[in-house]
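Components:
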Amino acid sequence: MRQPYRSFQILSLSIVLAVLAGCASHPQNQAGQVSRKPFGTTKNGIAVDLFTLRNKNGAEAKISNYGGLVVSLKVPDRTGKLGDVVLGYDTLDGYLKETPYFGALIGRYGNRIAKGKFTLDGNQYTLATNNYPNALHGGVKGFDKVVWTPKIIAGADGPGLQLEYVSKDGEEGYPGTLSVTAVYTLTSDNALKLAYTAITDKDTVVNLTHHSYFNLAGKGDILGHVVMIPASRYTPVDSTLIPTGELADVTGTPFDFRTATAIGARIKQDNEQLKFGGGYDHNWVLDKAMDQYGLAARVYEPTTGRVMEVLSTEPGLQFYSGNFLDSKITGKGGWVYKFRNGFCMEPQHYPDSPNQPNFPSVVLKPGQIYRNTIVYRFATR
Ligand code: GLA
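Structure:
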C-alpha cells in the first residue's frame, strides 16, 4: 500500500511543480506581468523570443533574448499618453541585416580600444578592428549579436527578465571565460533597470553598457532635448575617437552640460572635439564618487514633457548624439532614421581604458564579481 501512495504523492508534487513552472513563464503579480512570444530565427537557425514586460502603471518594455535588445519602450507623456521612446526595428530581420547597436547589450568591452590591441599581465591581445582603426563594442560578434538564455522573473519592484551568456575564453580575442548575467526590470516607478554581474576564470577586461537610441518625442530630431550631465570633466579624443588621456575641464566649452542645455544649442560650434565626433560622441567623467550609484544624466523633452533620468554605478557616460544616422535605415512603423533622430546615454568606463594607465581599471580577476547597474527612469514635467 505504501508504494502507490508514495507514487501518488510524487505525481501530485510533479503536477504542482508543473503548474508553478507554467505560472513562472507568465508571472502576474501586483508589480506587473511578463509575456513571451517568438521573435524569429537567427542566421544560425536559433529561435529567439520577444518578452513583453508591463508594470502596474501600464508602462511596457519589449525585450529580446537576441542581443538583450530593447525593441520598444512605452512610457507616458505629460497627458498620460504612452509612446515608444526608443529606435529600432519591428522585426528580428531588421536587426540581423544592419544595426548601429539599436537597444543592445554591449560587451565584452563597450566603446573603443585603440588599434584593437591591449596588454594584460604581459600578454598582448589582438581584437578585430571593426571600427577602423579601432575595436568597437566587443567586436564583430559582440554581446549585441549573441543569443542569451532567458528567464522570466517577478522582481519585488516590477516584472523582470534575466539573461545569461557565457563568453568563451578567446571569444572575439578576449582572454578568460566570462559568465555574464543581465537582469532587466521594469520598475513600478517607470524605470527600466539593467543590473549586470559577471565573473571570469582568467584575468580579463570588462566594460558592459547599454545602447538604446532614445527619442523622447517619438519623432523628429533630438536637438530640442534638454540635457544635464553632472560632470566637470570629459575625455577629449583624437580624430579616431580614442581618448588622448587627458581629463579636460568642461568649463566654457560645448561639453559643459552641468546646467541643462538643449543638445542643439552648441552642437554646430566651431570646435575640434565636435568635429572629431561629428557632434557629441564623447565620454563624460561623472562627478560622483567611483562605484557610487547616482545620477549620470537628465534629459527633458519640452513638447511631450517626458523626462529621462539616467542613473548608474559607472564612472563615465558616453553621450552620443546619433551623428551616424543618415536616413539609410527605415525603422519601426516606417520611420526613416535621419541625422540625429536618436541619442544614446551609455554609462560605462572610459573608452580605451585597457591602454590608459591613468583611467580607472577595467580588469576583472578570478574571484572578483563585476557589478554594474544602469537605470533609465521616466517621469514628466
Ligand atoms: C557608439 C559610439 C559611436 C557609434 C555608435 C554606433 O556609441 O561611440 O561612435 O559608433 O556607437 O554607431
